[in-house]
Amino acid sequence: MPLKVYQSLWATEQRRPGIPERPVSERFDKVKAAGFDGMAIDLGAMDIEAARTTVPEFARTGLGGLLTAFPRSIEELRPALHLAKDIGSPFVVVIGQVMPLAVAEMVPVIEAWMRIGREEGVPLQFETHRNCITNDMFATLLLLDAIPGMRLAADLSHYVVDREMMLPISDAYQAHVTRLLERSDSFQGRIGNRCQVQLPLHFPQHRPWIEVFRDWWRRGFALWQAQNPGDADCIFLCELGPRDYAITDVNGEELSDRWEEALLMRRWAGEEWDAALAAKTLTPGMARAV
């Protein structure tokens, strides 16, 4: 039951004005050399035609593929699923850009995307993300109640900001997070607080939030391990975004080294995965009580 840690191609961007990005092939090589298991392609950061040019890089480097889609209509998801097959993505993370106001109107949208996923033979996970159909934690919880087959990709940094969670995390929010983790099939690495979605990881004032997120990852891993067979792979995606996700100083320079932070986060995720494996008595029912 291995944990596979991926890096995001988007997260390898620097976005320094006047300085060209390093070639995609070099970024693939760096991720491979660092020992990551795969690379994730984000269709919110590049269009599908540009994304198709990365297909040979997966074959060349042997990195696993993962795709995040931002469909603006029901049928727009389909070509993203075709690309996912080309890069060997085991599932597609959906950040749906069809956003009805009412949960009752969201349900048929989610169900339609799930139907397309079944037709194409590609499992879907809906990311807990802002500015999409799962923008709000409470609405997402209602969607989970209404659609038993709906599965999530957990990036809880978005919901900490969405709900302006304060420390210590309340029992009510802990219970909500547990419900999300019970339905999550992959996990994303970013640490936020109630006002900022992506915090520098070496600043001492952020340690309490690091502890919160590491605890959530461990709980999520334990729930995943209880729900999946021993030979299944769990994917943890390091996704520390470039500016404006990354906080910058007065000169527009980032306050931290996101590459080093990704390596650190990979280590933390491995430690929490091992801790969850060691606590084999943890069950979904017990997790709510912890």
TrEMBL record:
A GO MF label: isomerase activity
Isomerase in keyword set: yes
UniProt keyword list: Isomerase
Source organism (scientific name): Ancylobacter defluvii
Gene3D superfamilies with a match to the protein in the record: Divalent-metal-dependent TIM barrel enzymes
Full protein name: Xylose isomerase
